Amino acid sequence: MAVTHPAVPRRASAVTPMHRELLLIAGIVYLAAFLRVLSLGEKSFWLDEATSLAIARLDWRSFLAIVTHREPGMSLYYAILHVWRRLGESEAALRALSVLPAVATLPLVHLIGKRTAGAAVGLLAALLLALNALDIRYAQEARGYSLLIFLTTLATFLFIKGIERPSRGLWAGYAATAALAFYTHFFAGFVIAAHLVSLAGLRARDIPARALAAGLAGIAALVLPLVIAAWDAVRSVPALPAPSLPGVYYTLMAITGAGGVWLLVAYALACLAAAPAIGRTRTSAKASVEAWRFGLIVAWLVTPIVLALGVSFITPILSARYLVVCLPPLSLLAATGLASLRPRWASFGAVAVVGALAIHGMVGYFVYFPKEDWRGATRFVISQGRPGDALLFYPPYDRQPFDYYRDRLGGAAPAVVFPEQPYVSAIARGIPIAADPGEALLDRLPARYPRVWLILGRDQLSTPEGSRAGQAVHAQLLKRYPAAKQKPFYGIVVVLYSKAGGTALQQ
Fold first, then answer.
1. Prediction pTM value
2. Inside any domain, residue 3
């Protein structure tokens, strides 16, 4: 009698599509984290980063005073940094706070892309964002921009979920997240505006009007204190150049990853390649919500740029740092276009080209993109200074990064005679800071100090676009000290004035 054996079921593959997707997104997140911690503390703090720390170092009473009257725009980031700095105040330790939300944004981009056009688009969008040099730059700055990107991306994800499956919890989460984004930067409003613009692509019956109205009312209520505080701070918004075609070009080039004109063209073509896929979805028999997701991504990318450009004709605000909220939708739209190319080899080839150009821009950031060298300038002044020297800063707020590096480097520095008080702490305590040293102070210097140092930030002396006020301070000091030697650092000029000739600055 023949012996029969029970059939042995075929062993299922150890790696399912879901496992593969999780492994890939984990790998992209790991890559992004590696790129964002690479050389994290190598470059010097620049003025804005030192200002972030100066605000975060304030006691809570002074902190509330300055964020409600002078710096409300990044108040959430400053509050988090106030606690985070207890882990360390080195450049790398403070910048690490920006790395975390930058990396956390990638899974959200993947989920939005997957929900819109499939897992492949979500993975590719996350990869493009991971390689974007502008995203890496702001993940390596002690500023709130990477937190802004994360919060606006999370708010967009919750907005999508709230439209598709309305619930009080989702819309409450949307309102809270959007409000937190506003407290990180005013330009979160660009993204909320994009959300509203996108509703034009939905049928009226697909819009949860009551839930949406409640969410918007919640945002308005939560943001009202910020709006009130902002009235006092409007005058402190830094001036930017008026909009121009070269300015628009360089802004768009920065957003696409600072890889030059070819990367800008590659992203433009990739976004255009998404048009047929979006069109097919809109003309298909699918529900309007599925087509609306594509419209939301387009609105998310285009609305902030259009609004910034329009406002700039009244008050110039067109800047890549204010448009970092466009980085996730740019990656999503480009990924949609690249993934839709046929035949498949054309899609892979296009992805390889865009990826290579993005890597080129990223390498350029690490190798060639400098920051104001306050570390080098401070070290130089400490090493070359003598007892009895005086030190002045112009503009006065440039004392902030110098104080940071003087404390870290140690050693005796010349006596600071202008401004007499650290800028941020003086403003927080209501102590007025003069805009420039003034004739009276300059007249007193020669009788007390044989040598005077002047530190001019933002290349105010050595560049054609330098400040006339900075040049005026330099000219006034030359009347009182006939000998002067200059040493430039990136973004900074250090000048030593002396009564006697022959003063030399060592290299």
1. 0.93
2. no
